[in-house]
Amino acid sequence: MAVQARSRRLLILGICCMSLLMVGLDNTIVNIAVPAIGRDLRAPLSGLQWTIDAYTLVLASLLLMAGSTADRVGRRRTFQTGLVVFSIGSLLCGLAPSLGWLIAFRVVQAIGGSMLNPVAMSIITNVFTDRRERARAIGVWAGVVGISMALGPVVGGLLVQSTGWRTIFWINVPIGAAAVVLTALFVPESRAPRPRRVDLPGQAIVLVLLASATYAIIEHELVAGVVALVALVALLLVEPRRPEPLVDIRLFRSPPFSGATSIAVAAFGALAGFLLLNTLYLQEVRGFSPLHAGLLTLPIAASALVLGPLSGRLVGASGPRASLLVGGAGIAVSGLLLTALTPHTPMALVLAAYFSFGIGFAMVNPPITVTAVSGLPTAQAGVASAFASTSRQFGSVLGIAVLGAVLAAGLRGRPLPAGFSSASHVGWWIIAGCGAVILAIGLLTTGRWAMSRQPDAELVDA
Fold this sequence. Notes:
Layout: H1 2-41, H2 45-73, H3 75-95, H4 99-113, H5 117-127, H6 131-163, H7 167-170, H8 172-186, H9 200-219, H10 222-238, H11 255-285, H12 290-296, H13 298-318, H14 321-337, H15 347-364, H16 366-373, H17 381-411, H18 416-445, H19 448-452, H20 457-460
């Protein structure tokens, strides 16, 4: 009976990972198709940034609310709804007749995707009750997220090269349909004993904050930057006064939680920016086909495939510090190797940078969620994991927005192939800086002092 129960738990973990594989692929598979989409829909660089950031922006904005909604109406029901909406959005993206429609349908995708990540984590937490077994399951889950995001360029390159960019969206439809059926058959329904109330003011402020900040960076719009600053101040003033806030500011009193959210932003910002610059370099500067460009990123995917689960096991056995330090160092070294990139840089050096980045990202991703919940009360674990997922997506938004803006500023109107190399140098330095930030924060927030800092009694009772 115990073996049967464990097999069922592993099956449920597999179903959750299937949906996350789909969402994770979609986070990065679009990058490899950016040049093809730009040519077909005649889109400028800023428009191409929005095809990626419209998705991640909405996803980041709705993750926290989706988690609390699932606690109230049922996790399985919310999970299935998310799968259906995401699949419909994917179908529509593949049919988009123009850039504007593609961006709109990416928003539909994101609304569905927001119901998957935090809800899957809640399902896993509810099913895996043993502490050590849960840590391993979370490690596998986080590893799948990293693997799927790293595999995106490879799968995308194959599809774009063979059948066109629209199929990168259509591939989600059969996977989503299968996940809906499997969820109905095997995933039990569950709700929180005392679900959190909906915080509409908090949700509205978060959406305005993220949207205006992203718009300000991509479009160089000062007014949007002011709006973002006002929204941030409003968030700090309004949320502490809400009985059950969407963004509980008190969580940031835990050094491991604050460190994990910062590391998530830095790591996923580095990944999104790395893939954007890499795609443009390989296809527009070096002239490789989408498939060839995708295959050249195999070192990243291979590292994630091998080291992601290993990192999860290491975190479960000895804590997150070692994984975070190796991860930060790997990302930093990768960025440094590419700071002098030219159209004629030996591919051996480029591939070495890819290997280094793959090792770094594979090691840093699994510990993020585990670190986020360290030192917090069990009742706050779901909120903390949702924050970790939100931070990942917000990092992706910033990575595309910031590095795209830096690249556009460096080009100064020059054509992409001729001006890319020198214009991208600042971007690679930023990626190296992200690795250094991960290294420093990982060292600071996983030591004895940080782990001994317990939340105050008010938070424990919350």
